[in-house]
Design goal:
Blueprint lengths: L1 H14 L8 H11 L7 H10 L4 H4 L5 H14 L3 E10 L2 E10 L3 E8 L9 H23 L6 E4 L3 E9 L14 E3 L3 H6 L1 H4 L6 E3 L2 E4 L12
Parallel strand pairs: 3-5, 5-6
Antiparallel strand pairs: 1-2, 2-3, 4-8, 5-7
Helix pairs in contact: 3-5
Length: 226
């Protein structure tokens, strides 16, 4: 409880880079858990703040949009998924980019990470539009994997499913798009990942006649705060 309260009082100091005035016991906790300088690992710090009870909405104040992708990726790695962030590919002359692809071989999650906040939150129809675009990106990714046109994301023998997903900073009260794409606030993302197999009948899940192998370890895979 003490660490949580100190963290809540210190978030604005961390955001402004004033690590020299962070309470000593909070700073020691972060350094020990991360195994290094917390100022150089905002994603790790955000994870640890959430671990000690700080709400994700407050902890994410430390992050920019690219860090937010890293937060989602690190959560998937902790859950045992292999990941690839910032996947770019071309299919039939059209370019695509996917924020995070994560696979445990049987289930592949295809994430679009939206750092929408209260100040710039879109209308609900924009959330639905983003979900439908992610559904189409996932179909394109499936075809690209089938054609073996990606260096780091390859097919392996077996059967699997690919699930498009929108991960948002805040809870907009929308759970599924019209096509069944889950729209998951970051506060509920860990439980969503843990429960994904039981949700496959409820969400958009593209069946594949292959399993997904992500060959190259993500560059951000370092010591993870659990």
């Amino acid at each position: 409880m003490e660490l949580r309260e100190e963290a809540l009082r210190s978030i604005h100091l961390m955001v402004s880079g004033r690590w020299d005035v962070i309470p000593a016991n909070l700073l020691s906790y972060l350094e020990e858990e991360l195994g290094g300088d917390p100022s150089s690992d905002p994603v790790g710090v955000a994870f640890l703040l959430i671990k000690i009870g700080v709400s994700p909405e407050k902890a994410i104040a430390l992050l920019n949009w690219r860090d937010f992708e890293g937060l989602c990726e690190r959560g998937l790695q902790i859950s045992g998924f292999s990941t690839k962030r910032g996947l770019r590919f071309t299919l039939d002359g059209r370019r695509y980019e996917i924020d995070v692809v994560a696979s445990d071989h049987e289930v592949t999650l295809v994430l679009d990470c939206k750092m929408w906040s209260k100040g710039n939150s879109p209308k609900v129809y924009k959330i639905f539009e983003a979900a439908e675009h992610q559904y189409l990106r996932t179909i394109a990714l499936k075809h690209a994997i089938e054609r073996r046109s990606l260096a780091d994301v390859r097919p392996e023998p077996g059967h699997g499913v690919m699930v498009p997903c929108i991960v948002t900073w805040l809870d907009f009260g929308v759970k599924l798009s019209k096509s069944g794409v889950p729209i998951v606030p970051i506060s509920k993302f860990p439980s969503f990942v843990n429960d994904i197999r039981s949700l496959l009948d409820e969400v958009a899940a593209l069946e594949t006649d292959f399993r997904v192998k992500i060959g190259r370890e993500a560059s951000s895979r370092n010591r993870l705060p659990l």
